[in-house]
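SAMPLE LOG
Freezer: B-3
Tube label: C17
Construct: single chain, 236 aa
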Amino acid sequence: MSRAFEQLSWDETPMGVLGLRRRLEPVTGADVYEVKLGDEYLMSSAFTVAEIELARLGLAAHAGAELDVVVGGLGLGYTADAACEDPRVRSLVLVEALPEVIAWHEQRLLPDVERLARDGRVCFVEGDFFALSASEDGFDPQAPGRAFDVVLLDIDHTPRHVLADSHAGFYTREGLAGLRRHLTASGVFALWSDDPPDEPFLELLGAVFSSAHAEVVTFPNPLTGGESANTVYLAG
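STRUCTURE (predicted):
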């Protein structure tokens, strides 16, 4: 049986102390992998339904036979792993600002998604998603200006609750228009949020893209005995 607690990684980063730990969840009896940045919990493998649905809904919104995809924010890798399940995905660029997070995957510290590091379609890019989105060159340093079919984003808690002040400009008309130019003509943008649908943000998406809507993803929460919910925004 696994140990009750293990600190897998603990690093000083420009954003604060980043930690990856594994613990035995007493309610479910399962191993849970958690990420903390300073005193703030960022993500947990106990709740991955919405992260997986971000990939499934985003890819399902595109009718293409072959897809070039960007995932902004690697984290525990569940969105990227779900994208790999779609046989239409031809290439997958994973943009992550913190090299320590990329190292977790390269060192196979996360058994549920260890295939990411050996999938030939996958390219890890160390970079600031928001800065790359605002740039002319875009997300692929090997092919400046390359356009993508789908961009999946899961970095901030919500469009209003961002992890760093520098991210806030992305959730404006100008910031979203900057992303739009890195998509193909039929491209899709999908965004995870921890809050219920935000109507002003949906209106903003609709002003930049031809269409926009929000999907509420619900999932059982064994810790509360009830349900929890996240939102996936879809625009194209």
